[in-house]
Please model this.
Amino acid sequence: MTSDTTTPPRRDRTHWLYLAVIVAVVAGVLVGWLAPGFGKSVGELGTIFVNLIKMMITPVIFCTIVLGIGSVRAAARVGRVGGLAIGYFLVMSTVALGIGLAVGNLLHPGSGLNVAAHAKEVTKYATDAKAAGGTWQFFEDIVPTTLLSSLTSGKVLQALFVALLAGFAIQAMGTAGEPILRGVASIQKMVFRILTMILWLAPIGAFGAMANVVARTGLDAVKQLALLMVAFYLTCVVFIFGVLGLLLRVVAGNSIFKLVRYLAREYLLIFATSSSESALPRLIAKMEHAGVDRTTVGVVVPTGYSFNLDGTAIYLTMATLFVADAMGKPLAWHEQIGLLLFMIVASKGAAGVTGAGLATLAGGLQSHRPELLDGVGLIVGIDRFMSEARALTNFSGNAVATLLVGTWTHTVDADRVRAVLDREIPFDERTMVDDEPVGPHDKDLVPA
Model:
């Protein structure tokens, strides 16, 4: 009888991490409700955790894009992917805008509310909106002060811009650039290892964030605005499973339900932190694992985090109509369209600003209907809860966009996508990096 010498695979213990996150969220709500003083004091735990995640975003994006572009022989493919992605993002933002308008005008959730008691809280967000600059400031900020400052500024588009330049430069170097690519690949693995270590602090961050927000707003404030919150959440659900799900089925032949299941842990992480940025590195790793070409992932995902803001579009639409109704000064149709189109553009300029959604909302009202600005204070109490659905929708839009653009540009292995979504090829939670290339264009990759 022969003995089985096969080494058993290491057990995946990360499921305990995500169970701990759920427990931490529930505990945070209870602590914030029953001991608000203590709940406020631990709020910084959530801020520290999100800052740790944001610390890793720039190196993850830089390494991913440099490896994706630098190892691809055909530079034209990058331009085609980027062009299709931008066009798709603009169309979907418009669709999200229209859905938010329809729901807001149908429900009128702000009618009859008194917002005078919350007016003082607006000043901070109006100041943030002004500091964020406008559309031209947004484009100007893409170019960093120095080459290295793009890696330390914390601005995603600056890292993207420099990574594109570095990727194309390495590509032009040919075989001379191969040692650089091997070095960047090693750095990428180290970065993902660090990120995995940080994620074990997620329960602590989730507890601090939830305890703080419940302590500051109280359950009564949440109940008062329940209609707006429920309407917003339902609108996001319809957009994800209706609009995005239909597109994914028609174009790529995949199920949105299976994709959501595949990204379940990322959804939980976003829900706990109210930031889609916390799952950006994992989305990059999972899309590559699913069979999307590294170049496509490296271009679409980071760009989508600044341009593809479907959840933000819905939020700005419904929040604007809510404020106008609550102030007793509803907007006419032409005012709604003009103001909200302005906000969609302005939201790009507010990317990276704390409270970007509120900052953009305040800035738009201040420039178009200043008499409504005081009403933004009513949103402050529940913005933290609404930001969860906003972040989940933005994340879903970027995940679907990656598969769609990959399908249109023939840079995705459709068979592998189906196998991964059917759980036939599990994702390696220990490293978040596949050691072997998986895309349909592996022949274009420079061998290590």
Observations:
- Confidence is low (pLDDT under 50) at residues 1-7, 115-120, 349-354, 434-448.
- The longest helix spans residues 76-107.
- Residues 69 and 318 are 39 Å apart (CA to CA).
